[in-house]
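Audit log entry. Action: structure prediction of a protein-small molecule complex. Ligand: zinc ion. The ligand was supplied as SMILES and no pocket hint was given, so placement is left entirely to the predictor. Protonation state taken as written. Sequence taken verbatim from the request; no trimming, no tag removal. Recorded inputs:
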Amino acid sequence: MYPNLEKLLLSGPVVTDGAWGTQLQSRGLPVGACPDAWNLSHPEAVEAVARAYIEAGSQIILTNTFGANRSILVKHDLADRVAEINRAGVEISRRAAGTRAKVFASMGPSGAMLMMGEVSEDDLRAGFSEQARAMADAGADAIVIETMTDPAEARLAVAAAKETGLPVVACMTFDSGAKLDRTMMGTTPEQAAEQLLEAGADIIGSNCGQGIAGFVEISRRLHSASGRAVWVKANAGLPEMRDGNTHYAQTAEQFAAYIPQLVAAGAGFVGGCCGTSPEFIQAVCKKLRSA
Ligand SMILES: [Zn+2]
C-alpha cells in the first residue's frame, strides 16, 4: 500500500463522502441529464456539493467524474471534452477541499458490457487511460474505481489507473445472489479481492447495491481476503418507489449505528453511496468520535 494511504489511517477510520448525483439533482440537475457535464456548465453547484461534504467532516472527497469516460460522454455528444470534464471535476473538489481533505477522483464503469461484445478490451483500456490521465494531470491524490460488477472491466480500470502512479482504490458492487454477496456477474468478495489486488489495487472495497447492514459481512470477507483496510460506501437502505421517484428510507442515525460493526469488520474508509447526504457523513463522524 502507498505510504500516504497508510498515513491517513493512523488516527483511525477515515471518513469519505456521500452521494453526489442526488445532491446535484436537489440543486437543479434534471433526472437523466449528464451530471459530469455540470463540471463545465454549473461548476458552482458542483462545488457547493463538495463543500457540503467538507463541512460535514469528510476527510476524503471524491469528484463529479463517475461517468466521465468516453463511452458514456459520447452518448451526450461530449466525446471531445473528456479530458476537460475530468480536469474540471478534480479542480472543483480541490478548490472545496483546500488543505482540509484529500481529493480522490471517481471513475465508474463504462456502461458497456465486455461479455456481450458491446465494447472491446482495447477500447475499454484506452477509455480508462484517457480518464485516469486527465484526473492525475489535474492533481488528484488518488483514483477510486467504483460500482464495478465485471471483474474483467475492473481489472482494466485498475491497470489504467495504476499507470498514472497514483494510489488506486478499487470497489465492486455486491447486490446479487441469495445472500447479496455476489456481483451481478457472480463474483464473490474473495474472487474480487484476488483479481483487484493482482491488477494492482492498493485498497479494495465495495460500494452501492445494498444497505449498510449487508456491508458488515462483505467488509469482513474483503478484509480477511486482502489483509488491508477496506473502503466502504453503502446505500441508505434499499430503494423504495414513491410517486415514480426512488426514495431511500433509512435515516442518517440508523445508517451511522452500523459504523462500529463495520469498522470492527475491517472497514478503514467509510462513507455513503445512493441515498446518503452530508447529514449522513455528519452522523458517521459523530458516531466515530463517540466510539
Ligand atoms: Zn450508489
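Audit: result stored. Residues 43 and 236 are 27 Å apart (CA to CA). The chain has one domain: 3-290.
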